[in-house]
Amino acid sequence: DLHLTPDVDTHAVVLQALYANGEGALAERLLSETQELLPSPVLFDSVIFGRIAVGDGEGATVQLFDMDAAGFTPHQRYLSRFLRRMGKHHGSGLRVINTLGHGLASTRGNLYHTLIEACGEGSAPME
Hints:
Layout: H1 8-20, H2 24-33, H3 41-53, H4 57-69, H5 76-86, H6 93-100, H7 105-121
Helix pairs in contact: 1-2, 1-3, 3-4, 5-7, 6-7
């Protein structure tokens, strides 16, 4: 009789599947049960992009800031991917750039450009 306990990676895969199938409420319930697990970039990533997929741009932004606070600071490519995926949920984009777009002016410029493209592809900002 095997008694296997799901690990962080297992939870991340299940969260991705739930969000992808529009089951945001069920994903959030599972997430609340994973709070005892150590913070993991894989788990953060699943929640961030899952929340975007179900239209929770503000929740995705909060999770991105939580990821940074946990010591997993996103790099420029990650932030660009985040901003591109925000699409019509781009209302928090400036806050993300101003908070996490550290470094050279060119880095911030690239992130602003990505945000502008996302704004053009989406409708009015949604939070």
